[in-house]
């Protein structure tokens, strides 16, 4: 839900801050006062196209901030998480600045954001309907999504079954395309893979072999140093009067001490252990020294083996394990290529079977959609009748998909209407009458309230060209919509304004030879005065005030009766 908007240096707005609540909000004022500019600012904050023309004359930049309160189950939370953005106490603050140069910057809860990120988030937060704007409900490419949403869970289950089969179908189709390779290309591929397989197989690699060879090479390269060092170590331990002799003498003296003082026993045990360990070390060191020798032939063999492994690593993987894994993959692909005719026939059989199941699933989906379309047509015509368009025909036109199977089925649907008896059905986007388009949008929004995730709906002068009973019907429909959604409406119709829960007056004034827009939230007396102006023009008379008071009183009765 929209909680607040703050605007600075935007068009003729010097500075405005507005707070919003639940329910039905209207913005009224004389033509040119800046009502629609507020809506433009909202649109811009949620990803609309920026322009230097929006920056107030003489200012360096325009600034717009909008604050939304996000419910716990709102779908925008998933988008925010995907984008790595966090909410602050269920609040989402969006800020956009447009420099006088035309460059704009966006921030979401203080983090820099791209325009595409802003658009992704914005489509879940607010839906703006203008007299000639075709938003989410009027975009032909989205009509199928709205129809499926209207169809409910049963239709949704059929669509998910179709989508699962479609994914399987496309996987097999790609597999068949891969197997249906040009014969020359396949032969070249077999030659290459055969060479690679033979090269890896001939190397007869073993996991960890390269590490063992590196250690052996290091030992062979330094053989002379090792022989000398091992001999010196042996001499230090075994020569007369050196390590082993010294320990033997120490052990002899400790044995004498232990005969008279048992407390020396632990020390004697430690020295005895050291004697045994040194004797074992002398034995092993002697054998190590005797086995050491310089082997130039073996060193050459090790160097050649390591060079071969290095060459294979450059071609097939950074480790021996990776090379062996690549070799296994090569063997599997070779077998598949050599048996590609059999494999191709098998994939074809599978593809034909899945295609048949996919066709059946598509037919079931189309049938369910047509049933949902009939219900939608009835609902729409009932809603339009409430809006003083009782003779209007609404139809969901079905067209076969030009691409056959698509990710969403084999259907392309389009909402069409015939506003007057005897007229042909036409697409929504080609409706000529602004008043008809306004009521059509309102009817659609009313029907889709349960499936549309957007909580805040903005109507920008969609009641233009409507008066009398039709205006009253629009007002009552908007008030009904506002019991479930937050609704903002820019209007010139007193029938609409009197039904609002919150009323804002937009006025244009001149101060210091500068034009600026002022916004005032009206109390009951202010609402009466503004309604009287809307009814009677510039001059407010006692009669128009009484008429305005009566409209407010009747509007309250209508709203109370609907609760």
CATH fold name of the domain at 1-136 and 460-523, please? Rossmann fold
Low-confidence stretches: none
Tertiary shape: elongated
> What is the first-to-last residue Cα distance?
21 Å
Number of β-strand runs: 15
Mean pLDDT: 85
Using the 3D structure, state the CATH architecture of the domain at 1-136 and 460-523. Answer: 3-Layer(aba) Sandwich
What structural class do the secondary elements suggest? alpha/beta
Explain the layout of strands and helices.
Layout: E1 2-10, E2 13-19, E3 24-28, H1 35-45, E4 61-69, H2 76-82, E5 91-99, E6 104-108, E7 111-113, H3 115-122, E8 126-130, H4 143-179, H5 183-203, H6 209-221, H7 223-238, H8 243-260, H9 265-291, H10 296-316, H11 320-338, H12 340-386, E9 393-400, E10 411-418, E11 426-427, H13 434-447, E12 456-460, H14 468-482, E13 486-490, H15 494-497, E14 502-511, E15 514-521, H16 524-536, H17 542-562
Parallel strand pairs: 3-13, 3-14, 8-12, 12-13
Antiparallel strand pairs: 1-2, 1-4, 4-5, 5-6, 6-7, 9-10, 10-11, 14-15
Helix pairs in contact: 4-12, 5-11, 6-10, 7-9, 8-9, 10-11, 12-13, 13-14, 16-17
């Amino acid at each position: 839900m929209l909680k607040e908007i703050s605007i600075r240096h935007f068009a003729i707005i010097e500075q405005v801050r507005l707070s919003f609540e639940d329910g039905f909000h209207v913005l009224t004022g004389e033509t040119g006062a800046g009502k629609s500019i507020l809506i433009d600012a909202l649109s811009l904050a949620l990803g609309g196209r920026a322009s230097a023309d929006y920056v107030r004359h003489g200012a360096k930049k325009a600034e717009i901030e909008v604050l939304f309160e996000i419910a716990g189950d709102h779908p925008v939370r998933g988008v925010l998480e995907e984008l790595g953005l966090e909410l602050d106490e269920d609040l989402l603050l969006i800020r956009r600045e447009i420099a006088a140069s035309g460059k704009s910057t966006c921030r979401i809860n203080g983090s820099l954001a791209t325009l595409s990120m802003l658009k992704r988030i914005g489509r879940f937060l607010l839906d703006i309907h203008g007299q000639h704007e075709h938003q989410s409900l009027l975009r032909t490419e989205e009509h199928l999504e709205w129809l499926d949403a209207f169809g409910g869970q049963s239709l949704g289950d059929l669509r998910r079954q179709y989508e699962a089969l479609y994914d399987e179908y496309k996987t097999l189709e790609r597999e068949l395309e891969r197997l249906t390779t040009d014969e020359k290309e396949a032969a070249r591929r077999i030659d290459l893979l055969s060479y690679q397989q033979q090269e890896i197989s001939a190397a007869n690699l073993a996991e960890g072999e390269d590490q063992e060879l590196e250690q052996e090479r290091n030992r062979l390269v330094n053989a002379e140093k090792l022989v000398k060092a091992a001999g010196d170590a042996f001499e230090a331990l075994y020569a007369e009067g050196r390590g082993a002799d010294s320990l033997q003498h120490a052990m002899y003296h400790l044995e004498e001490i232990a005969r008279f003082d048992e407390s020396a026993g632990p020390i004697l045990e430690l020295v005895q252990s050291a004697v045994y360990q040194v004797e074992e070390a002398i034995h092993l060191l002697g054998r190590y020294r005797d086995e050491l020798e310089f082997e130039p032939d073996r060193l050459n063999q090790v160097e050649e083996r390591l060079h071969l492994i290095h060459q294979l690593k450059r071609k097939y993987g950074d480790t021996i394990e990776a090379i062996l894994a690549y070799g296994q993959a090569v063997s599997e692909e070779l077998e598949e290529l050599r048996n590609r005719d059999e494999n191709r026939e098998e994939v074809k059989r599978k593809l034909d079977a899945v295609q048949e199941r996919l066709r059946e699933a598509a037919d079931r989906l189309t049938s369910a959609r047509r049933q949902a379309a009939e219900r939608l047509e009835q609902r729409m015509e009932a809603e339009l009748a409430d809006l003083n368009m009782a003779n209007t025909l609404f139809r969901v036109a079905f067209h076969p998909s030009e691409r056959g199977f698509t990710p969403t089925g084999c259907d392309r649907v389009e909402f069409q209407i015939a506003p007057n008896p005897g007229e042909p059905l036409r697409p929504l986007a080609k409706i000529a009458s602004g008043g008809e388009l306004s009521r059509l949008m309102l009817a659609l929004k009313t029907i889709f309230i349960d499936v549309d995730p957007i909580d805040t709906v903005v109507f920008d002068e969609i009641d233009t060209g409507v008066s009398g009973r039709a205006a009253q019907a629009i007002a009552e429909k908007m008030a009904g919509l506002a019991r479930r959604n937050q609704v903002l409406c820019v209007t010139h119709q007193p029938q609409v304004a009197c039904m609002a829960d919150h009323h804002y007056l937009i006025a244009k004034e001149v101060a210091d030879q500068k034009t600026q827009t002022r916004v005032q939230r009206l109390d009951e007396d202010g609402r009466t005065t503004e309604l009287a102006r809307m009814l009677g023009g510039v001059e407010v008379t006692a009669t128009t005030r009484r008429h305005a008071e009566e409209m407010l009183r009747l509007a309250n009765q209508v709203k109370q009766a609907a609760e």
